[in-house]
Design a protein that fits this description.
By secondary structure, the chain is mainly α. 71% of the residues lie in helices and 0% in strands. It has 3 helices and no strands. Helix 2 runs antiparallel to helix 3. It is elongated.
């Protein structure tokens, strides 16, 4: 599902980023950065996984890297999606759409 919907969503976000209000543009920039940072992280993890195989590391090391990366990536993606959806539903911009984490959001019970 990610292989198909991710690139399509990223393409739509790129195409419509110039024709909207500033607060919507911050969401579209946040979405495109989420896609590209995730793709870059996935490529880096795949390269590390292959390097571990080339140097003859034990298989448990590769499995640990894979599961650790997958878990961290899943948490990061869910956090960014949660912040984006919350802000979008409340007609609020992403405070720092170029951030590597969660767009400058702070978690509180009022949010």
């Amino acid at each position: 599902m990610t292989v198909v919907t991710g690139p399509i969503g990223m393409l739509i976000a790129h195409l419509f980023r110039r024709n909207n209000a500033d607060w919507i543009n911050s969401h579209l920039l946040f979405q495109t950065r989420t896609f590209w940072l995730g793709a870059l992280g996935g490529a880096a993890a795949l390269a590390a996984w292959n390097l571990l195989g080339l140097i003859g590391a034990p298989s448990w090391v590769s499995w640990t890297l894979g599961y650790g990366f997958f878990t961290a990536c899943l948490g990061w993606t869910m956090g960014r999606c949660g912040v984006g959806i919350n802000r979008l539903m409340n007609n609020r911009a992403i405070d720092a759409p170029r951030s590597l984490l969660f767009g400058g959001a702070t978690v509180s019970l009022d949010d």
